[in-house]
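ESCALATION

Customer reports they have been waiting on this structure for their group meeting. Please prioritize. Original submission:
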Amino acid sequence: MTMISTGNRNFNVWAGASACAQVIKLQYCLELLETQTLSSLQRYFQDIFEQAKQGKSKAVQQLIKNPKFNQAYILTTELVARGIENPKLIKLKEIIEKEFENKEKTKRIIVFSQYRETVTKICKTLNEIKGINARVFVGQAKKQSKGEITGLSQKEQQEIIRDFSLGKINVLVSTSIGEEGLDIPEVSAVVFYEPIPSAIRQIQRRGRTARLQPGKLIILMNKGTRDESYYWAAFHKERKMYKAIQDINEEFKNNKEKSNKKSAEETNKPEQKKLF
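Update from on-call: job pushed to the front of the queue and completed.
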């Protein structure tokens, strides 16, 4: 990229950059397939075809010429048409149904997901359950997508939080905006639609429940996918973080003990008189 930014027009340099761009897009396709929803993947395929139609980059134009890429799009479209989805979405629906079986207890649940497209799909799926009023909770509008403004205004966010506090909304389906900095009431359960590799963000999400009363944390993972990699990445980072904090506390404690010991020795030291 540095060579390109300096004006290098060598064919091999540009071909290499195009190949990297294609790999990045394919990796994103795999992430959507393994961790998100088939609907999200289908939408991304459609975006790539639209970009190629508009001639936006060589990378997308090369991708749509690949027979395997087209086959993957066709298979995804067929599965979505048949109502087949990521098994995590089906499991999530089962979990929410079970959590709200007891009608006597007032419950509030937050479901976290990385992408707005997934959040929208989750919300639509959960609203199919009788007695569930789920709402999408995302950041403020930043861009336009096919003529529609995505995101929520600050006023809309405040209204959703108020309705969630009052129990009018019982499931909040949120992106990372719900992790911190907002006055969201305590919830009975937090569900991660996918694990995240950040230990800090995982702790922030977890902190939305079990503050004043027992709460649940549920993390959904597809076996053998990057879901597992992200989960263990965050797990080991959190362990290292707590170990570092423990080491700092131990060092501080030892230094304090040494300081107190030195002060005691200075206090108990016999006074020496000067002889003239």
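Sent to customer with the following note: The chain has a mean pLDDT of 86.
Escalation resolved.
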